Amino acid sequence: MKKGNRLPERLYALAMWAVSVVFALFLVGLGGLVINDLPRKAGDVTYKPIYPVEMTRRQVALRDERAAIAAERQLNDVALEAAQSATRNAREGFQAWLETRKATTDPRQDTELLTRTAALERLQQAEHEVTRRIEALDQRRHIYDASKAQLARDLEAVDEAYRPVFQRAVFRAQLRVFAIRLAFTLPLLLLASWLVMRKRHSQYWPLYRGFVLASLYAFFVELVPYLPSYGGYVRYGVGALLTVLVCVVLIRNMQSYLARRRVAEADSEQERRQRVDREQAYAKIDRKICPDCDRPIILVDGLETNYCVHCGLTLFEHCSRCETRNLAFNRFCLSCGSASLGHRDKTDEASRDAPPLESA
Questions:
Q1: Could you report how far apart the first and last alpha carbons of the chain are, in Å?
Q2: How are beta strands 325-327 and 316-318 bridged, if at all?
Q3: pTM (predicted TM-score)
Q4: Which of 45, 113, 136, 335 is deepest in the core (most CB within 10 A)?
Q5: Which sequence spans correspond to the domains of the chain?
Q6: Ranges of the chain whose pLDDT falls below 70
């Protein structure tokens, strides 16, 4: 904020900045709605490799085989548990009967011994049969796992062949999205650049500034993140190109500025003083910079620095009435209030240039 400005001017500048920001926010919201309404399907790419029919059939067959193995294994596990339980109970009953047989030693029980032994053997045989079926299922599961692994390798081969095609499709989709957003954003950027170069001193600059802020948001948020990468080549290439363009613009602007400064420094000190804005002069002198040539003001201990050693511009002067040292851009002396030398010279010139009053 410039120190020479009046308080209403400072408040007005803050209010204009607030207007610019609010206007930019409304434009950003409006632009977001417009971008959301742009075609949304342009960037949608679905990964759909085309698998051979025979491979698809193998997938279905393996899925059915897995379900069948799981169902049979569950049934056989139940059957094995039941057979083991029956065998265990029969063995315990047989052992109890044998103890009784030894105690009684009744020969008539030999037939029953053979019958009980045959029944226990049948139960054990049934248990062994279920165990063999489970082992066969385990063998089928091993074959199934090998087939599944081979199918996974075949599917991976198809995916590897399809992946470059998918990547190209993704790049084209990203390019379409970027082109759509660029078609919306580029006119805003061009108009914002024109406003910055041509309308910075317009009375409607606060509104133009809000439009510029909204355009910058659209560029850095709505456009740059959608710039296709393609392995980084596009983004780094565009970044290098933009850097070169910015460098060229800066170099040309600096050369133009130096040329203007050389022409301006050839003018008289009075002409150069008249071109300097008083408020800008206060701000620059406060930062120890010459208001005309923008070079540092040389300060020496024990000496008053009243002139710029680079361009000769008067920076400080002594009041002709009270000898108080004032900024040369003050309109009045800060001690006695008399008009400064430069202000008196302008007043005298104005009075000399004014036509004489006619006598009555």
A1: 51
A2: antiparallel
A3: 0.49
A4: 45
A5: 7-228, 229-266, 269-352
A6: 1-7, 9, 38-44, 97-110, 112-113, 229-232, 340-360
